[in-house]
Amino acid sequence: MSGWFVFLALLAAINPPRLRPHLDARTRPAHALAAVAIVLVVGALLVVFADGILDGLEITPETWHIGAGAVGALVGARVVVAPALRGIEIPDGWAVAVAPFAFPLLITPQLVVLMILLGATGSSPAAIGWLATVLAVTVGVSVVRYQRPGVWLAAAGSLGALLVILSVALVVAGIRDV
């Protein structure tokens, strides 16, 4: 996978415009940075231990390719249909950095399967670097003061569609590799 593919896939998996109302309205910068640090550490661990995870599950990287594409396509389709996150309770205090921001808003199923896939395909340092870049974009989006919700929802839906497209490419690549 090329660097741009990885970047776009991670960007679509995290979908910063979709998270923006939750990161902007209710969190302090220290909480957002703590959540980003948690996501970066968890993502790096998934990449580093990807081969062990797949061996433990007795799944080949090619099969994981197909599964990661299926997960991404399902989540992307849901985002296209309903781009806004609803029903998220934001607690007070430092717990907000862990739940709900790091888990489950940032560390999502599509991000987990993608990070394991990137680790299994041997692009570990690049994957961690791209994840850090996407998380920086996420923090950047959360501080933008443009208040038009329709624009953010359209951007979130577009990234959901991009996730579907990239996920289909992952499924096709997995089928070719098998």
Give your account of this protein's structure.
- It is a single chain.
- This protein has 178 residues and is mostly helical.
- It has one domain.
- It is built from nine helices and no strands.
- It has helices at 3-14, 16-25, 29-48, 50-57, 61-81, 95-106, 109-120, 124-143, 149-177.
- The mean pLDDT is 85.
The structure class reads mainly alpha
What is the helix fraction of residues, given as a range?
A: over 70%
Number of strands: 0
Low-pLDDT stretches are none
Quaternary structure of the protein: single chain
Number of helical segments? 9
Q: C-alpha Rg, in Å?
A: 16 Å
Distance between the termini: 16 Å
Q: Give average pLDDT, whole number.
A: 85
Pattern of helices and strands: HHHHHHHHH
Main sheet overview: none
Index terms:
178 residues, mainly alpha, globular
How would you sum up this structure in a few lines?
Helix content is 81%, strand content 0%. The chain is mainly alpha-helical and 178 residues long.
Q: What's the arrangement of secondary structure elements?
A:
Elements (H helix, E strand, L loop, with lengths): L2 H12 L1 H10 L3 H20 L1 H8 L3 H21 L13 H12 L2 H12 L3 H20 L5 H29 L1
Helix pairs in contact: 1-7, 1-8, 1-9, 2-8, 2-9, 3-6, 3-7, 3-8, 4-7, 5-7, 5-9
